[in-house]
Amino acid sequence: MSDSVVYDVSEGVATITLNRPEAMNALDTPTKVALRDTIQAAAEDDAVRCVVLTGTGRAFCVGQDLKEHIGLLQAGDMDALWNTVPDHFAPIALAVAEMPKPVIASLNGVAAGAGASIAFACDFRIAADTAGFNLAFTGIALSCDTGVSWTLPRLIGQAKALELLYFPRTVPAAEALTLGLATSVVPADELATATAELAGRLANGPTVVYGSVRQSLAYSASHTLAESLEFEAGKMHLTGDTEDHRNAVTSFVAKEKPTFHGK
């Protein structure tokens, strides 16, 4: 595992931290591999009931490491250059988006390119007031990746998504909140506390239910109403068989606050 990705699990919360502050957490190949594998491991770990993605230093993640990219271009290594999309960026986006548990992006700084795409695949984006988003792809004459063509228009609409992709600029935190790119904005020195509060709340909730809800919403985006109703029925059956459901119903009747165990 690369030192550029730090993984910690505490009280049901898995925190995945990009740790290349000197490179603004740019994604070189070892970091992409480590990030992909760590996210997939968190998705499969029954002890994890909420996942937090964050970064160290001034940036959340500025996307592809362009120094590495230029080196591959100059070396003519086209396989390594373009296989990174199906081998790394796409699996990262899928692992985040299809995670059967809630995911928070805790944005300590700018999220650019694939870094922004990863944040958009999360359920919540808590941004420091010093953070921002930049859809940098066309600025270096590349199309978009890491699922942003799917997530971004669903967050802010087709027209605004095209504008931000055509004409890249850093969208500051306050504007990002207004547009819907950020879920909430907090003072930078309160980011860790705000993230911990939300992560704790989610980690103490009905994990299977959260996973089912996020998967149902994703499914409905590309299926008919009839198909979505059938998918919903399956998820109702799944969640109805959980201990959390039975305990919650019993607590409701007893007028007590339910305790969830994520199963």
State the major sheet.
Answer: 6 strands, mixed
Question: Strand tally, please?
Answer: 10
Summed over residues and divided by their number, the pLDDT gives a mean of: 94
Classify the secondary structure makeup into a structural class.
alpha/beta
Any low-confidence stretches, pLDDT <50, length ≥5? none
Please count the helical segments: 11
Beta content comes to 15-25%
How much helical structure, as a percent, in the residues? 40-55%
- Helix-strand pattern, N to C? EEHEEHHEEHEEHHEHEHHHH
Distance between the termini: 30 Å
Q: Tell the overall outline.
A: globular
Radius of gyration: 19 Å
Cross-sheet strand order for the largest sheet? 1-2-3-5-7-10
List keywords for this structure.
globular; four-stranded mixed sheet; Enoyl-CoA hydratase-related protein; six-stranded mixed sheet; 263 residues; alpha/beta; Enoyl-CoA_hydra_C; 11 helices
Briefly characterize the structure.
The chain is an alpha/beta fold. It is 50% helix and 16% strand. The two termini are 30 Å apart.
Q: What do you see in this structure?
A:
This protein has 263 residues and is of the alpha/beta class. The chain is 50% helix and 16% strand. The chain has eleven helices and ten strands. The strands form two sheets. A six-stranded mixed sheet has the order 1-2-3-5-7-10, sandwiched between helices. Strands 4-6-8-9 form a four-stranded mixed sheet. The two termini are 30 Å apart.
Task: Give the topology, please.
Blueprint: E1 5-10, E2 13-18, H1 29-44, E3 50-55, E4 59-61, H2 66-75, H3 78-97, E5 103-107, E6 110-112, H4 114-120, E7 124-128, E8 132-134, H5 148-156, H6 158-166, E9 170-172, H7 173-179, E10 184-186, H8 191-203, H9 207-220, H10 225-240, H11 243-253
Parallel strand pairs: 2-3, 3-5, 4-6, 5-7, 6-8, 7-10
Antiparallel strand pairs: 1-2, 8-9
Helix pairs in contact: 1-3, 4-5, 5-6, 9-10
